[in-house]
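Q&A log
Question type: sequence-to-structure
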Amino acid sequence: MNYFVTAIGTDSGKTLVSAILAEALKADYWKPIQAGQPADTDGVKSLVSNSITRFHPETHSLKLPASPHAAARFEHLQIELDDFVLPETSNEIIVEGAGGILVPINQENFVIEIAKSLNMEVILVANLYLGSINHTLLTVDYLKRNNYPVKGIIFNGDSNPESEQIIEKHSGYRVLMHLPKLGKVSPEIVQYWADQLMLTWYE
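Response status: OK
Response body:
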C-alpha cells in the first residue's frame, strides 16, 4: 500500500511524520510538488537512516513558497493532475502532500486529488491548537464525503485530551500515534518514533 500524508493545514508536521513513516515501513519517499526551499525531500533524507528507503525527485519543484497554482503561474507553468505518476519502485511509497487537502494545484484541482488518482490511502496529520477541532473535522468531512480511504490520524504537538477524544469520536478514524512537541529532531528521534508507530500499525 502507498500512503498519502496530508494535514489540516500548512506546518502541521507532514514532513516529520513522513520521515517517521518512511523509517518505520522502510518505504520510499516522494514529494510530488515542492514550492519554495529548503526542499522537504532533503529534510526527510537527513532524518531517515535505513538503507532501503529511496528518495524520488519531485514532479514539480517550484521556487516561490506559495500555493502550487500560484507558484506555478509565477514560473509560467501549468500543473495538471495527470502530471503525477508514481515513481517506479517495488517498494511502498510515502507521498507527502503540500499544505492541507484543498490547496489548489490549478484552477480546477486540489492537492488531495493526487491521492485518489494514484489510489493511495490517506494519513491525516492534525496538529493541536485553538481551532484545530474545527479544522480537523472539516477536513474529515471532506475526505468522507468524497470517499477517500483513510488509514488513520496522527496527532502532533502538546497533548490536549479533550480535543483528541472529540476528534477521534466524530472522525471515527483510528489514532495511529501521538507525537509530542519535539525540540531538535534527529535520525535517532525519528527511529524511536518509527519503532513506537510499528507497535500499533497493524492493529
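Response note: The longest helix spans residues 132-145.
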